[in-house]
Write a structure and sequence with these properties.
Low-confidence stretches of chain B: 321-331
Mean pLDDT of chain A: 92
Radius of gyration of chain A: 19 Å
Largest sheet of chain B: 6 strands, mixed
Shape of chain B: globular
Number of strands of chain A: 0
Helix content of chain B: 25-40%
Largest interface: A-C, 41 and 37 residues
Mean pLDDT of chain B: 84
Strand content of chain B: 25-35%
Oligomer: heterotrimer
Structural class of chain A: mainly alpha
Number of helices of chain B: 11
Chains: A mainly alpha, B alpha/beta, C mainly alpha
Helix content of chain A: over 70%
Largest sheet of chain A: none
C-alpha cells in the first residue's frame, strides 16, 4: 500500500471511528444539545472580550472592529475545523498512561487516523458556527472592494489555516508520546495560536511577530493574507506574493508534522512509553 | 499437522532493552538499561494452545507486545505467520486476534453489536465470513441476548465474552489472551474456557495465553512456558512444572479442639491457629490418602485443599532452581 | 483543636496530591506564560488607545494580566478543582459513605481545595508572575503590609471560588449529566472573574453589575488590593460577605441533598 493508499485508508478509518463517537454521544441527546450550546458560548468569549474592548475604544493597534472581526472569524473558523477533526488528540497522553494506546496499534488501520478520530465530538461545531458568523458579519461590514480574487482567498485561508492548526495538533500529540503529562503545552500553541491571531500583528512586538511568521508560521493562517484583502501593509515588510503562500506553508507544516508523528510513534514502539 | 510445516510463531534470540531513567535526586536522573526480554527463543506450532506465565514484570507483556507488532525488538528474529510484526504491523493485524483481560475494546455506550459492525468494516471482513463467525461466537459464547444491550450494562464476564468474540470475527490464525479470566466468577470462567477449547479443537486456532490462574493452564494448555527476568525458565507440560517447582498443596484441617501439630508425613504443619491447622504436602501426592490417614487418627471436623497458584509454583522453582532442569524441559 | 488538625491534614493531602504531577505543572506554567504574553500585548494596545482605562495605568494593566495568569489555576477559574471528584462521588453513590464520616463534608472539601489552591499558587502561579515582572514593567508594592493584605485577599478569594464550585458540584445530586454544569462554571468563571478583561474596564451598567457579583472577589479584588487601588478593608468585607453567603447556600443545598440521599436509601 503506497502513501496514497495509506491516506485513503486513514480517512476511511477516521470516518468509521468518528461515526461511532457521534453515535455514542447521541445516546445522551439532551446533554449533546446543552454541550453544543455551551461550546458556542465558551468559544465566543474571546469575541465578547473584543467587543468589550471596542465599547471603550474605536481601534486597536490601528485596526477597526470589522477588520479585527475579520481576523477573528478567519482564526476561529479555521481553528474550529482543525479542532473538530483532531481536537481530542490531547487524550493521547492518558491513553498511553492507561495502556489503551496499545489497542490502537493492533488495528489494521493507521494509528494517526484512530487517535485523530478519538473522542470525536460534533459539539465542536459550536466554535465553527460562531467563528463563521463573525466572519460573515466582518466580510459584510468591512470596507473592502471584494474582487473575485479576494473572495476566493477567503476559503483558501480557511482550508490552509485548518491544515496549519491540524499540523500543530499532530505535532502536539507526538510530543505527548515523550511527555505524557504535558498535554497542556500543546494548548499554548493551539489555543494560544488562535487567540493571538484574533488581534492584529501591529499589537505585538516585532520579535514576537517574527517568531510566529518564520518559526511557527501562524501568520499565514490569517495575518498576511488578511492584510492583502484589507489593503494593509504586510507585517515585517513581507513580499507581495506572501499573501498567497498559505497553501504552501500548510503543506510544509503538514509534512513536518507527519515526520514528527512518525518519529514519535517509532519512539513509542521502541521504548514502550 | 505435517512435520515440515513452518511454526506459526518463531522467536530466535529476541531481546528487548529499555532505557529507564530513574530519579536519584531533586533534578538528578540516572539512566539505566533494563533487559525486559533476554535472548528469548521458542516456536509455537499451528494449533497449539500455550500458557505463557511468569511473575509481574517478568517480560510477559513485552513479549506479547513484540508478537503483535506494538513494540519493535532490540535484537533477534521474530516471525508470526511468516510476517515480521514490527515491519508489517497492519498486515499482521488481519491475522491475529488480541484480548486484554483488563481493557475492553468494546464501545461503552453503544449496543454490543455496534462494536462488531465496526470490526466488520475496519477489518474489511467479507459479509458471509462475518455472518458465519458472528453466529458461531454468539451461539458458543451465549451472546444472543446481549447484542442489543449497551456495553456499559454488561457484567464483567459478559464483557469478556464480548471481547473474545470481537477478537475472532476476522478469522485470526492466532489468538493472544492476556489474563482472560481475571476477575470473573466461576461460571463465567468455565464458559470462557469451554469456548477456547472448542475454538482450538474445531478451527485449529492457535492460542497463547498469559494468566495468573493455574486452572486456566490446567484445563486448556498442554504446554506451558515460564518466563522470569526476561528469560525462558521452563517450557514443557504443566505436570513437569509441578515436578520442577516441587510445588506443594495446602490442606487446611479444622479439628474438634486445639491440638499439637498433626503428624502425617510427608505433609508438614506450616501454620496453627486454634483448632485450625495448615499442612503443606507435595502436589504429586494424593490428597485423599492423606485425608484418610488424618481422619483415622485425629478428630476431624472440616477440611479444604488449596491448590498451589502460579506464583507459588514459580517461587519454589527458583528456590530449587537447577540449571539442568530447565534445559531438560526446553529440549 | 483536634478537628483543626484533621482539616490541616486534609489540606496537606490536597497539596501533595497535585504536587505529584510535576510534568503537568511545568506544562501549565508554560501555557500560562504563553497566554500571559499574548494578553499583555493586547492590553498594552488597548491602554495605548485609552490610557487610564478602568483607572489603571499601563504598568497596572500588565500587573493585572500576570496576576490573572497566576491565579488561573490557583482559583480554578474555569473549574477543574475538587468539584470533579465530588461530582464523581455523588454520581457513583460513594458520597453516602462520606456523609457518615465524622468530618464535615463541606469543610473537608474546602480544606482539600485550599490545599490544591496553595500548590497551584506556588507550583504553577508564581513562575509566570515572576516572568512577567522580569520582562514587562509592573506596578508592584514595596511595603510588606500591602503584600500581607494581598495574601489575605487571596485566601478569601480561594474560599469564594470554593463556594461557587461547591454549589455547582452539589447539582450532581439532581442532574444526571454534569457536562452542562461544568461548562457553566467555565463560562461564568472566565467571563465574570475578569480574565477576559479587568472588571474595572467593563463598560456602563454591565460593569456596575459584574463588579458586585461574587466572581469579582476572585481576581479583581486581590489585584486592586495588591496595586493599592482599593481600600483593603472594603475588599475583605466584600469577599467575606460573599464567602459566607456562598458557604451558607452550600450548607442549605447540602442538607437538601442529604435528605434526598437518605430518602432514596443512598
Amino acid at each position: 500500500m503506497g502513501e496514497r493508499g495509506t491516506v485513503l485508508e486513514g480517512l476511511r478509518a477516521f470516518r468509521l471511528i468518528a461515526g461511532m463517537w457521534v453515535r455514542s454521544s447521541m445516546t445522551y441527546r439532551t446533554s449533546f444539545v446543552v454541550t453544543m450550546a455551551g461550546n458556542l458560548l465558551m468559544t465566543a468569549m474571546d469575541f465578547v472580550g473584543i467587543l468589550l474592548m471596542f465599547a471603550q475604544v474605536d481601534s486597536l493597534g490601528g485596526w477597526s472592529l470589522p477588520e479585527i472581526a475579520f481576523l477573528y472569524g478567519l482564526s476561529v473558523t479555521s481553528f474550529g475545523a482543525a479542532d473538530l477533526l483532531l481536537g481530542s488528540m490531547d487524550v493521547l497522553g492518558s491513553r498511553i498512561r492507561d495502556g489503551s494506546f496499545d489497542i490502537l496499534l493492533l488495528r489494521p488501520v493507521p494509528v494517526l487516523a484512530q487517535i485523530g478520530a478519538d473522542h470525536f465530538a460534533l459539539r465542536r461545531l459550536g466554535r465553527i458556527t460562531q467563528g463563521a458568523l463573525v466572519l460573515g458579519w466582518a466580510m459584510w461590514s468591512v470596507d473592502v472592494d471584494w474582487s473575485v480574487g479576494k473572495l476566493l482567498l477567503v476559503p483558501l485561508m480557511l482550508v490552509s489555516g485548518a491544515a496549519i492548526f491540524s499540523a500543530l495538533f499532530v505535532a502536539g500529540a507526538a510530543f505527548q508520546i515523550f511527555a505524557q503529562d504535558a498535554a497542556e503545552v500543546q494548548n499554548a500553541f493551539t489555543y494560544g495560536g488562535t487567540t493571538l491571531l484574533q488581534y492584529p500583528p501591529t499589537v505585538f512586538g516585532k520579535d514576537f511577530v517574527r517568531g510566529v511568521t518564520f518559526v511557527l508560521p501562524l501568520a499565514f493562517v490569517n495575518w498576511v493574507p488578511a492584510c492583502y484583502v484589507l489593503g494593509r501593509a504586510y507585517p515585517l515588510d513581507l513580499p507581495g506574493w506572501a499573501a498567497f503562500a498559505p497553501p504552501l506553508v500548510a503543506l510544509v507544516c503538514c509534512a513536518a508534522a507527519g515526520l514528527v508523528w512518525r518519529a514519535g510513534l517509532g519512539s513509542y514502539r521502541s521504548t514502550g512509553s | 499437522m505435517s512435520v515440515t510445516e513452518r511454526p506459526l510463531i518463531e522467536l530466535d534470540g529476541v531481546e528487548k532493552v529499555f532505557d529507564v531513567r530513574r530519579k536519584t535526586g531533586f533534578l538528578k536522573r540516572e539512566r539505566r538499561q533494563v533487559r525486559a526480554v533476554d535472548s528469548l527463543s521458542f516456536t509455537v506450532a499451528r494449533g497449539e494452545m500455550v500458557g505463557y506465565i511468569g511473575p509481574n514484570g517478568a517480560g510477559k507483556s513485552t513479549t506479547i507486545k513484540m508478537l503483535t507488532g506494538i513494540l519493535t525488538p532490540s535484537a533477534g528474529r521474530l516471525r508470526v505467520a511468516g510476517i515480521d510484526p514490527s515491519r508489517e504491523r497492519t498486515r499482521l493485524a488481519h491475522r491475529i486476534g488480541v484480548v486484554f483481560g483488563q481493557r475492553t475494546t468494546l464501545w461503552w455506550d453503544l449496543p454490543l453489536i455496534d462494536s462488531y459492525r465496526l470490526m466488520h468494516r475496519m477489518y474489511r471482513i467479507p459479509d458471509a465470513r462475518y455472518r458465519e463467525n458472528l453466529d458461531r461466537c454468539v451461539e458458543l459464547l451465549e451472546l444472543g441476548d446481549l447484542l442489543a444491550a449497551p456495553v456499559r450494562q454488561l457484567s464483567l464476564g459478559q464483557r469478556m465474552r464480548g471481547d473474545i468474540a470481537a477478537a475472532l470475527l476476522h478469522d485470526p490464525e492466532v489468538l493472544y489472551l492476556d489474563e482472560p479470566t481475571i476477575g470473573l466468577d466461576v461460571i463465567s470462567k468455565a464458559k470462557v474456557r469451554g469456548f477456547l477449547k472448542e475454538l482450538n479443537a474445531e478451527l485449529g486456532t492457535t492460542v497463547l495465553l498469559t494468566t495468573h490462574d493455574l486452572q486456566d493452564i490446567e484445563q486448556l494448555c498442554s504446554r506451558v512456558m515460564v518466563i522470569d527476568h526476561g528469560r525462558l525458565m521452563y517450557d514443557g507440560a504443566l505436570a513437569g512444572l509441578h515436578e520442577v517447582g516441587e510445588s506443594e498443596r495446602i490442606l487446611v484441617v479444622d479439628l474438634e479442639r486445639e491440638l499439637p501439630p498433626v503428624e502425617a508425613p510427608p505433609a508438614r504443619v506450616v501454620k496453627v491457629e486454634g483448632p485450625r491447622q495448615w499442612l503443606a504436602f507435595p502436589a504429586g501426592e494424593s490428597a485423599a490418602a492423606l485425608v484418610a490417614r488424618i481422619a483415622a487418627e485425629y478428630p476431624l471436623v472440616d477440611l479444604s485443599v488449596r491448590e498451589p497458584d502460579i506464583e507459588d509454583v514459580i517461587a519454589r522453582m527458583y528456590a530449587g532452581a537447577v540449571p539442568g532442569r530447565t534445559e531438560k524441559a526446553v529440549s | 483543636m483536634g478537628s483543626g488538625r484533621l482539616y490541616t491534614a486534609v489540606a496537606a493531602g490536597g497539596f501533595r496530591r497535585y504536587a505529584t504531577y510535576r510534568v503537568a505543572t511545568a506544562a501549565g506554567v508554560f501555557t500560562n506564560t504563553a497566554f500571559g504574553i499574548i494578553l499583555v500585548y493586547t492590553y498594552l494596545a488597548l491602554w495605548d488607545e485609552k490610557p487610564h482605562l478602568g483607572g489603571y495605568d499601563q504598568a497596572q494593566a500588565v500587573t493585572y494580566v500576570w496576576l490573572g495568569q497566576c491565579l488561573y489555576a490557583t482559583l480554578a477559574i474555569q473549574g477543574g478543582g475538587f468539584e470533579k471528584d465530588l461530582m464523581a462521588r455523588i454520581r457513583t453513590g460513594e458520597i453516602a459513605v462520606d456523609l457518615y464520616r465524622p468530618a464535615d463534608l463541606q469543610l473537608w472539601w474546602l480544606a482539600s481545595d485550599v490545599g490544591r489552591s496553595l500548590f497551584q499558587l506556588l507550583g504553577r502561579g508564581v513562575i509566570p508572575f515572576v516572568f512577567g515582572a522580569v520582562f514587562f514593567p509592573m506596578a508592584l508594592p514595596r511595603d510588606v503590609t500591602t503584600w500581607a493584605a494581598f495574601a489575605l485577599a487571596l485566601l478569601l478569594a480561594m474560599v469564594v471560588s470554593f463556594g461557587i464550585r461547591y454549589l455547582a458540584a452539589l447539582s450532581a445530586f439532581w442532574l444526571m449529566d454534569g457536562m452542562g454544569v461544568t461548562q457553566a462554571v467555565m463560562i461564568t468563571g472566565v467571563f465574570f472573574s475578569g480574565i477576559v478583561l479587568p472588571l474595572n474596564a467593563f463598560p456602563g451598567a454591565l460593569g456596575e453589575v459584574v463588579r458586585v457579583l461574587p466572581w469579582a472577589g476572585q481576581v479583581q479584588m486581590p489585584a486592586d488590593v495588591l496595586m493599592g487601588e482599593t481600600d483593603p478593608l472594603g475588599a475583605f468585607a466584600f469577599q467575606a460577605v460573599w464567602a459566607v453567603a456562598l458557604l451558607a447556600a452550600g450548607r442549605l443545598l447540602q442538607s437538601a441533598a442529604t435528605r434526598r440521599v437518605v430518602v432514596q436509601g443512598g
